[in-house]
Amino acid sequence: MWGKDSRDSIWSNLEHPWDVIVIGGGITGAGIFNYAARAGLRVLLAEANDYAFGGSGRSGKWVGQTAPNATLALERERLLRNAPLLARPEACYRAVYQGEKVAFGQRMPAAARDVRAWAPHLREDGLRGARVYEGAAVDDARLVLRLIREGVACGGVALNYARAEQLLISARGQVCGVVLRDRAQGEDGRTAEVQARAVVNAAGPWCDGLRAKQGGKPLLREKSGSHLFLSLERLSLAGGIALPHPRDGRELRFIPWEGVVAVGATDQDYYLPEDVAEPAVSAQEVEYLLEGLAYAFPGLELGIRDVIAGHAGVMVLAEGGGLVLDESGLVTAAGGMLATFRVTAAQALNLLRERLPGLRPFEPGQAVLEMPGEMPYSGVLDPAEWSYLAGRYGRELPGLLAATPPEELTPIYPHLPFLWAELRWAARDGAVVHLDDLLLRRLRLGLQVRRGGVTEMEDLRPFIQPELGWDNIRWQWEVARYARIRELYYAV
Questions:
Q1: Is the whole model's pTM more than 0.85, yes or no?
Q2: Which of 46, 84, 367, 423 has the fewest beta carbons closer than 10 A?
């Protein structure tokens, strides 16, 4: 589907008119692309960097609610029901201590002893009990990839490293396409003028930049939300835990996720300049999160030495809910959430019904993701392993297993779920342009392994280099590039 030669084929066939072009490969763009493809539209997704490169791949890996929100609750339950192997239920105990105000009528269904069993090393002084937040743990980047790949399976076309340089405007002043540049070939890579009946701007923090080219007023406010990742062996938790930060009372969460614990998030106003490659966790944010970590688990003496990695995500807060139809016909969809992408997709496409008269209506009960049927390779994979792979790959799983010798169905690292087979499959068919695409977003080793796997690169090499067709010079350059990116933006 996405082999190393697929880019050239796609670029050579862009001249045909499209129904919809979606700009942006985060959760909002992926959801719109998926639904447009499933609705029978000829749709193209163009992402300037890699899929899930922005905030959609840098969340706290937990979809929950700390206050009543009917839409969020409904969509979370739909995700758990329709994609049970990708998103798993994960409750979060909000610890309540002496002196905290509890709203009238608000229950604490978990007693102090229950909280201590849930989080054995949690601060005990003054612990009264806990409120319980219902939620789900999810690999954010994998969810984005599943949506995009299933959109491709339904006839859509997706390109990463394809930047929208400018909008095309018709004689009537309407947006009628984009000029794309192939950044996989560098900043001077090939370009293409791509025509479409409608264009959706889902570029996240970069939405305003695209709107400004048409004279659109700023729509967004940006905030930085950073997380640190620690080993579950160092911080053992039965599930999520939250408590107020001692400095400002802001809620700090600790969420178990695939062998590590995500600690966060910070919350501060932020601006991502156009010339900055990606955000990084600031020294002040590291200090803040470590302070909260030490306060929450005083007996463990956790510190900077225990942190495996960190990431900073830029959250977009948009006026009016972030859905705007400009006079030029450009639809901007910004400020979407990981759990509510389905709602955002339906609303965005509804704004385009006049331009897309053949658009089929959305069915409320439509499945979020397609899951595989009967369990293959039952003699090799146990049910837990199959469930893990089925959640990550959906209907791709039979193809992955058919191309995999049994000896590669073993973990790369004993404490993590990722298999050697996944590494090879992602390199072979994962639209990987650079090594960081593979190790930070297809698999999440850059967040879950010390130094991001750089020290084990020669062990990983036979599963990556041949599949991507890189010569030794290119391999060495990619390793150096990945090590630099990991050190600059993910190390603390």
A1: yes
A2: 367
